[in-house]
Amino acid sequence: MGLPTNQISCLLTLINQAARTLETGYNKDDGVVPSLDQIEPHGLDGKLSAPDMQEAIQILEGACAQLCATLARPNHTLVNKFFLTALEPSSLHVALMFNIPDILQETPSGMHVNEIAQRCGTEPSKLARILRLLSAKHCFREVEKDVFANNRLSVQLLASNPLRSLGLHMTGDTTAGATKLAETFADPEWGPSFVPAHSPWNKYTGQPLAMFDYWASNPDMHKRGERFGIGMIGWGTAVEAATVVHAYPWKDLAPDATVCDLGGGVGTMAIQLARAHPSLRLKLQDLPHRMVQAETVVWPTQCPEAIRENRVEFKAVDFFIESPIAGCDVYYLKNVLHAFPTAECLTILKGVRKVMKPESRVLIHEYTLQTAPTSSQQTTAAQLRTAPAPLLSNYGEGRIRQYHLDVSLMVHVNGRERTLDEYIQLGEQAGLRFIKVWEFGDLSGVEFCVEEN
Q1: pTM score, two decimals?
Q2: Which residues form the O-methyltransferase C-terminal domain (predicted)?
């Protein structure tokens, strides 16, 4: 079957419109679109994206990738976009491990690779080849032959930025574990298993414990767990998880409404809720060591007014054996369920269901995987925003992070992201009724209420 004659024109139109939307957004803020060579932040870099800019970048990335895949020879695309890209995370890992962004920041105009290598204690010609590959991907820039400098992307990887910790994790544990995906699939015991310790990461490391359990029980690995926690702050910033603070109608809740942030760690999202909606009463619940850290270290420095005004309560919980605080208006679970198999998810949700009042809500804040629709999905899938034609309905490359994270969870702990239908089924089995799926930028929110008997 040939390509419809207008599809290329349609893709070009989408690219042009999306680029203009983004250009206008930048110009409205600082009056200029930032250059890739720039290392000072743009005014928009620290703000949540406007909805039209969020969608524009999804369309732009999806349409550009689809146009290239359409027009280039298929063997060209496979080699460039699938085979060779496996080298990129390992190359970036070199730059992160040797703190090259911080070294280059000392000389913004550029530093010769001989000096960089001397500072790193490594061989200069090999390092130059790594930095040249990364520069060709617009992370770092080669000012002149063998002279490298930071740019708009690489400056995000300074040691002071939580994104560096995320990068070390993704280019380290994730990349290494992913090399054992096929071997894990082929294992007659592990292949069909969803046990967290039957993951590709376990296959790679040879550890009998699930990744997070191993980090927690091994003192030598505590720093790895801390680094992961910092990295998740960087991840949340990159995916604009804080969109939920403004996109969900918290302000419509009754005065002094209670929100239980269940499994919320030290309360990164709860802190943002406390700042944006001071009328809310927050209940932060996680394992004991997280609650101690939250109550004694994090909140006294980042949100002391909430403690002073008695707007936050810290209470440890093991949600596999006990229910959360009873009678809250909203039970908020961010990136909790995707780490566990179905049986454990049901245990968590049933525990919540037991303590809900009739008007309580459950808000699950994670990715909602978009798939090609089937007849069984027609009633619910239509509630997820789809891309304009001729893009793939899920935006393709424009929303690729959901599929990357889905496989990453499989690599780490045998976890998974879920489709809307799968979330709805979980809710029904736990005695919850689906209300709505929310668009929170890159992520989604699936809202439930009590199922009436």
Answers
A1: 0.93
A2: 201-432
